[in-house]
Amino acid sequence: MENVFGLLLLIVIGGAGLISVFIIVNLLLPVPVARTRAALETSLGRSLLLGLVNDLFAFVLVAGIIWLAQQAGGGIVAGILGLLALLILLAVGLFTVLGLAALSNVLGIRIGQNGINSVTRGSILLLLAGLTPYLGWFIVTPLTLLTALGAAIQAIFRGKEKTA
User: Is residue 40 part of a domain?
Assistant: First the structure.
């Protein structure tokens, strides 16, 4: 019974922390979030496909780097390769957080709010959808993470729009 209480406490505290992160990202990075939100609103399927391809590429790249580090047998080369693998995982994680912050903003605006209330409501909706047993764990969460990653990559690396 104490494991259930600990798990419930972890979900509540972790969820509140995740909602706070999305709000902070929306407040501190309004331009990248707006570009990512625009990418989500205009090309959702493209964002999903781009996220899937980049996630698979990052997985293969990190697995190859870890394999090379093991073949190096330790030392400075293995440490540098391990650091490189961690930096790749960190970059994928940061892009995903940016995409999730924009997605929570999109969901909140579609609910009917604007501003910080929209991010809060969208984040709560996103969190509850991901916590739904089976459907949320195995369908909603992976699709959401891949779409968020693809939208953030699309927003950051797309060229600036040319003005006439």
Answer: yes
* Nearest Cα to Cα of residue 41 among 89, 133, 95, 110: 110
How is residue 127 written in tokens?
């969190």
- pLDDT tens string, the chain, 164 residues long: the values are 678 888 888 888 988 999 999 999 999 999 999 999 999 999 999 999 999 999 999 999 999 999 998 888 778 888 899 999 999 999 999 999 999 999 999 999 888 877 778 888 999 999 999 988 899 889 999 999 999 999 999 999 986 665 55
Number of domains in the chain: 1
Q: Is residue 27 part of a domain?
A: yes
Q: Residue 147 falls within a domain, yes or no?
A: yes
In a domain, residue 164? The reply is no
pTM for the model: 0.87
CB 118 within 8 A of CB 111: yes
Q: Which of 20, 37, 23 is nearest to 109 (CA)?
A: 37
